[in-house]
Design goal:
Strand order of the largest sheet: 3-2-4-5-6
Largest sheet: 5 strands, mixed
Radius of gyration: 16 Å
Order of helices and strands: EHEEHEHEHEHEH
Strand content: 15-25%
Structural class: alpha/beta
Number of strands: 7
Helix content: 25-40%
Amino acid sequence: MQGWKLEAEEFLSNFGPSEHPEVTYLLYEIQWGRSRRTWKNWCRNIHPEHAEIIFLEDEEVHDRPDIPCNITWFVPWTPCGACAYEIIAFLEERPNVNLEILAAQVYKPYDHRNRKGLRDLADEAQISIMEFSDYQYCWEKFVDHQGMNLRAGRGFSNQRRIDSRQLDSIINPF
C-alpha cells in the first residue's frame, strides 16, 4: 500500500463529482473483528491494474482470513464491470467480509458490462454515491489539508443527485 495521507490537490482532482482523473485513488478503512480501532490507508491504480485490484491483491488484506471484518472504500468511480466480478469473487471467498463502496461518480454508466457488474456486485456489497459528509470525512481522515476547509463547489448537490439516480437505476432497474 502507499504512504499515509493524500495531498489536498490530489484528493480534490480525484474525488470532485465532475472530475475525470487519470490516477484513481482508493481510500479505505478496515475494522477487524470487534475492535474499535479502524485501519485507514489508500492505494492507487498502477497501469494497467485498477485500484480495486491493487487493494484485493495486497497481502495485508489477506492477513486474517478467518476474522470478520468491515471494509469501507471511498472511490472516485464505481467499479468497472471487470473489477466488479473480481470483487464479487473476493467476497465469495471471504464470507466474513462486509464491503461498503462509496463512490463520487458512476463509471461509464451506459456501458452494459459496467451496469451488469454493478447490479451483480450490489448483491454482495453496499454501493452508494458519496454525500458531502463523506467528502468531509475523507478530507479529515485521509487528506493532508493543512488546515484548509473543504467546501462544496457550485453544482455539487445537483451532480450528486444525478449520479445517485444513475446508480439507483442501474442497481434497481425496475
